[in-house]
Amino acid sequence: MISFFITLSRMTKALLRAIHDKEFQVLFSLTIVTLLSGTIFYSTVEGFSLIDALYFSVITLTTVGYGDLSPQTDFGKIFTIIYLIAGVGIILGFINKIADNIRKKD
Questions:
Q1: What transmembrane ranges does the database entry give (predicted)?
Q2: Among candidates 61, 66, 52, which has minimal Cα distance to 79?
């Protein structure tokens, strides 16, 4: 339990450090826009609830892919291909930027 709080503390410090970095701000904004666009698309086109659409967007872009939800329409499948190609790089860049700030010492 102590290690959890130490990790949480390091993560919080890293996020506070990163928030002043322009590159982090851009990646954060792109991440939010990407997740919102996926959520809106899957909710509208595939008929997922908002929480299911957000869940599917996050699971897809983090490449976890549980398989419990999937696009059923051809348009949804084509969108998902493009969404993955564009979105995975954004998410990985965002996660990498957070990791860089965790490695930095005060």
A1: 24-43, 75-95
A2: 61
State the alpha helices, DSSP H only, in 21-104. Answer: 22-45, 50-61, 74-103
Kindly report the CA angle at 95 between 8 and 82, in degrees rounded to 5? Answer: 145
CA distance 29 to 18: 13
Amino acid at site 35: L
User: Does the domain at residues 2-103 carry the CATH identifier 3.90.79.10?
Assistant: no
Which residue, 2, 1, 73, is CA-closest to 42? 73
For 6-60, what is each residue's pLDDT tens digit? 888 888 888 888 888 898 899 999 999 999 999 999 999 999 999 999 999 999 9
Please state at what angle helix 74-103 crosses helix 2-18, rounded to 10 degrees: 100
Report yes or no: 91 and 4 within 8 Å, Cβ to Cβ: no
